[in-house]
Amino acid sequence: MSNFQLFLSILNILGALALFLFGMKLMSESLQRISGGRFRAMFSNIASNRFKAIIAGLIATGLIQSSSAVTVMLVSFVNAGLFNLTQALGIMMGANIGTTVTAWLITLFGFRFEFHLILLPLLGLSLPFIFFPGVRSRSFGEFILGFSILFLGLHFMKSSMPGVGADSPLFSMISGIGNQGPLSLLLFAGAGLLVTLLIQSSSATVAMTFVLCHQGYISYESAVAMILGENLGTTVTANMAAIVANRPARRLALGHTLFNLAGIIWAFALFGFLTKITYNAAYSLSVNSTLGASGVCPLGLSIFHTGFNLANTLLLVWFIPAFRRLLEIIMPVKGNEKKSFRLRYFKSRFMAMYEVDILQAREHIYNFGKLTAYMFSLIPEYLTEKREIKFEKIRKKIYKCEEQADELDREITQFITRIAESDLTEANSRRIQAMLKITDDLESIADQCIQMERTIRKKNEARAWFTQEMRDDLFALFELVSQALEIMNENLSKDYRPGILVKATEQELKINELRDKLITSNKTKLDAGEYSYNNAAYYAELLNECEKLADHIININQAIASNTRQ
What we know:
By secondary structure, the chain is mainly α.
């Protein structure tokens, strides 16, 4: 084979890999749109029970066909405080099992029969659905299309491999690696890890491994070693995402690596036994089925892939608390470390994750809500503080919150706008519209807090002091607004749903009634000469600013309720 022919073969293989990845991306995105709110509900309702978490991780990864995407998502959720480390470790273990679904699809459909014979009929079946009205119909058509393209890529991957022979440079190179004795297994594991690092898709790397083994380029044992390396390589994506995350998220990413590394260590210790038992099981099943002798290697690798991840999970799930403590020892919390409200998004290179993106956006909007509640909680203390140093310290805290609020508003709005550019379901489109409205009102709440800070500062500079009665009345109104913020954040913390307006509306009415009562009382006492003009003016300003802030709170609750129509 000439160098040009070898170069052309490599390009063909890369082209086939591109088709495989594109098909997987199309399947993932369409499945997320078809699943709708069920995907969100599965994660929103996750309990602390580690076994439920494992099941959730398994289902999620089987749904979006990418363990890297799920673990990157988990890093984001732990970073945002949605899950604790124990829950996330359980979901991550389940994701390791769920990622083996792709291997079974490849084994059952890619090697069992000539899939390309039914490729055109499948593509023809997808065409009407793509042109049907409605996102779900189009998504179903795109799922069939992605499924077909994935296996078309697998077909081309098989056919693009040069023939196995003494004159094949590719075969000679791989044979050279395989002739290194016991070191060969480590070299193949390293190759699997390296390729997974490069393309950041363990499913695609596993597909290539299956093809190499099926075509005779590598032995069954070498393919098993490559799969072990690929299992470790898939953890790098989450570690890259966690570089800019907080400490709990970095612990999770490291935990994913250590979990898979521990599995590789015991798997290599029992390597001969594992390869023998999985190959024999595959051989027994193949001779008694339509798979035939040619299907032994793919079936055996699928059995090993699932069996290894399942066994590793069942072995280590009992040690999650100890595992969590180990990670806390490796990455201890620093004494001066503070919780950050900063927003960070982590995206998979190949997988668009609409449902995951919406979950992330919703959680960061909730953090935005908590930030505004904290910012408002500084106002009463700021009003009564007379010590200059302490007063200035509180002022700096308020303005620091304002900077964070502006940054959150900008980043959340940009991110939600990117989601809105996708082909979303009607329900998701409503959620996006609600989120944009909520983000805008949250930023207005922060601006209102700044306005209150300025009013208080001007009052002090003008030496306009409030009476005890004024302060007591203001604090009563502050308390009602704080309760309204609590109700708002409670609604933001849950999946947007109907029936949340009753409590919020009752609180808004209480605020309006008290504000109107105090405004009337203030005017009466000003007319009677009990209050000076300066005192009454600043007092009325704060009352009106509280009421405006409460208006934004009820707007947020209404936006949450507005997108719950299904």
